[in-house]
Amino acid sequence: ITSIQAAAFYGTKLRSIHLPNLLTSIDPNMFTNCDELIEVTLPDNLETIGQKAFSGCVSLSGEIMLPSSVKTIESFAFENCIALTGIFFSDKIEQIKEGAFQNCQGLTGVIFPDSVKSIEKKAFYDCNNLSQINLPRNLNCLAQDAFINTKCWDSVTNSQQWEISKTWIHDGFLIYCSAEDARCFSLPEGI
Questions:
Q1: pLDDT in tens, 33-80
Q2: Full 3-state SS string of 126-172
């Protein structure tokens, strides 16, 4: 099997799936609202995780390891996967699109490899337990509301000051972060 059509398993009672290594794309809505899906094994050759591919998979638990061939996580791909506790990005991931992990309440920490160049708006919106993140060195765009309604400001990676270089910080980046949560940001000239 090299392809599976979009929404093929939408809303089914599937509990576990091991996707074949020849599969390179998880199309949009493929597993949307599979509320009993607990476990998925991603293929080694996977390149694309489509929009809302796993959205609403509220029982999807544990940690997801993304293959090194994945460069982009499309919009809302893991939205509302409330039982997901970890996501491991390879050093090839470049873009995390809008709402990709929105409302993943089980996430507590995320380590971004330096390959990440863009974290779009609301990528981690309402991840209420997310308390530890690091910003990658090659980040070019940190979009509006990327980490709104999280606890990520409670621990600032390895220091109490972040230095952000070459980064665009859009309106709303620190919305709902209190002054004591936000700690200290050092912004270089020219931002």
A1: 999 999 999 999 999 999 999 999 999 999 999 999 999 999 999 999
A2: CCCCCCEECCCCCCCEECCCCCCCCCHHHEECCCCEEECCCCEECCC
Nearest-angstrom CA–CA distance, 39 and 82: 13
The first and second tokens of residue 19, run together, are 């996707």
Contact 151, 174 (CB under 8 A): no
Pairing of strands 161-163, 25-26: unpaired
pTM for the model: 0.82
